[in-house]
Amino acid sequence: MRQDGGAVGIVISLDEREKKSGASLDNLLALIRPDLERTNQLIIQRMGSDVTTIPEVANHLISAGGKRLRPMLVLATAGMCGYKGDGHLKFAAGIEFMHTATLLHDDVVDESDMRRGKIAARMLWGNETCVLVGDFLLGHAFKMMVEPGNLPCLTVVSSAAAVIAEGEIMQLNAAKDTQTTEDAYMEVIRRKTAELFAAAAEVGVILSGRPKADIAAARSYGMNLGVAFQLIDDALDYGGSSAKLGKNVGDDFREGKITLPVVLAFRRGTESEREFWRRTLEKAEIKDGDVEIACGLMKKHKALDDTIERASHYAAIARDAMEIFPPSPSKSALLEVLDFCIERVH
Fold it and tell me: H or E element: which one contains 88?
């Protein structure tokens, strides 16, 4: 899809598509609501501690209105495959704890002021406390996920934890580096973001005792959904609104983050345009009006259009991966998640 308008115009077009398709998480939520409520209860129970600061910090973020998309994938894939136990609840809660821990750590590394539309926890409790509370959540995540006694699932999530940490370090190494290639950036988001989506989708199928082909298909679905999800986030940072994004528009730009729209605009730009990106991102010399200039360069070089197009490509791969599973309400709902991901506006 191509647009002649500016950055905001691209997001408006996504709004229009969402209105037409009506893609949402509603069908998925309806199918997993009882399990999701039990998972939320488990999350509340397990983030308790005699050290009162820990539940205060954890609750600040966990209660801030996140979609719970990763635990929802655990519950939905387990339901799609006919799982009858309750181990999926502990993996769902554990994976949400892992995700929350990475957000706490991310905000410290990125020096972010906002998270999910609220003041970032680090602004209220300090960086040191947030790092340690993140460590607490990681510890409790694995404590929960050991309880079902499923070693293959535990192997998947423990491997994911290591891969996510590698992605975080890769992103840190690439920070403010305008020479970052598209391949290098895609590897960062596969590790940092998509890996946990993949693990969440995979765990539900492993718990159900399904064959390797089904497990591989679920992992492919989760991985490609995660990539698409992050790419849309990248585009929205230059074309959304603070209320919808849960952060300030242009935060990635102000923090010197190299995201796919930047990679594309830098690569396609003139030398003077590349000097603009070097000044603003590498040297952090940002002036009034630079965000608007950045958005103008995105428009000129179709960087947001092409980022969205790439996200749609990964969503299509995820959709194909699901073909191995027979028709079911859960499968249909999981496919709708792909449409929601591409069409969403926070």
Answer: helix 87-110
CA-to-CA separations, 249 to 72, 234, 283, 292, 317, in angstroms, rounded: 27, 11, 20, 11, 29
CA 159 to CA 114: how far, in whole Å?
Answer: 29
Structure tokens at 84: 């009858």
- The pLDDT-based confidence of 240 (bands split at 50, 70, 90) is low
- 26-46 and 87-110 are packed helices; what angle lies between their axes, rounded to 10 degrees? 80
CB 155 within 8 Å of CB 129? no
Is residue 90 within 8 A of residue 48, CB to CB? The reply is no
| Angstrom distance (rounded) from CA 229 to CA 237 | 13
Please name which of 165, 154, 160 lies closest in space to residue 206, comparing C-alpha atoms: 154
Q: How would you classify the pairing of strands 114-115 and 118-119?
A: antiparallel
323: its two tokens = 């073909």
Residue 19 makes CB contacts below 8 A (sequence gap 6+) with none
Tell me: pLDDT of 70 over 90: yes
Closest CA relative to residue 89, chosen from 29, 160, 44, 145 = 145
Residue 115's SS3 state is strand
Question: What's the alpha-carbon Rg for the chain, to the nearest Å?
Answer: 20
Q: 343 pLDDT band (50/70/90 cuts)? A: confident
Whether this model's pTM surpasses 0.85? yes
E strands along 17-174, which residues?
114-115, 118-119
Specify the higher pLDDT residue, 66 or 263.
263
* pLDDT digits 0-9 by tens, 130-148: 999 999 999 999 999 999 9
CA 318 – CA 3 distance, rounded (Å): 25
Assigned token pair, 88: 């999926």
- The beta strand positions in 228-273, using DSSP E, are none
Distances (CA, A) of 173 to 9, 111, 119, 134, 251: 33, 16, 26, 22, 19
User: Which residues touch 106 (CB under 8 Å, ≥6 apart)?
Assistant: 112, 168
Enter the DSSP assignment of 323. G
